[in-house]
Amino acid sequence: LTIKVDKRSTREFDLHFDISGTDISHFVYEIPAELEVEFLPPEIIIENDFLSFQSSCELIDNKLNYH
């Protein structure tokens, strides 16, 4: 599973879930308003063969630099 995160705006990302080159799912991930955003990378790529949807979102949260 590859997750590619493309920055749409300051608080929104497009998430693309990809298995073996096939885009299987795509949705918008919005950073909750109560979180202060210090730095948002333009793109995050996470590759892991056994991630669930929930742990994928947690991994993305951990990759973003919140205070």
Q: What report would you give on this structure?
A:
The structure is a single chain. By secondary structure, the protein is α+β, with helices and mostly antiparallel strands. The chain has one domain. Helix content is 16%, strand content 49%. The strands form two sheets. A four-stranded antiparallel sheet has the order 3-2-1-5, with helices on one face. A two-stranded antiparallel sheet has the order 4-6. The longest helix has 11 residues, at 53-63.
Number of helices: 1
Structural class: alpha+beta
Number of domains: 1
Q: Which strand order spans the largest sheet, edge to edge or round the barrel?
A: 3-2-1-5
Radius of gyration over all CA atoms, rounded: 12 Å
Q: Which of globular, elongated, flat, extended, rod-shaped describes the shape?
A: elongated
Distance between the termini: 28 Å
Instruction: Determine the mean pLDDT.
Output: 65
What's the helix-strand series? EEEEEHE
Main sheet record:
4 strands, antiparallel
Percentage of residues in DSSP E strands? over 45%
Helix content: 10-25%
Total DSSP E strands = 6
The parts where pLDDT drops under 50 for at least 5 residues are: none
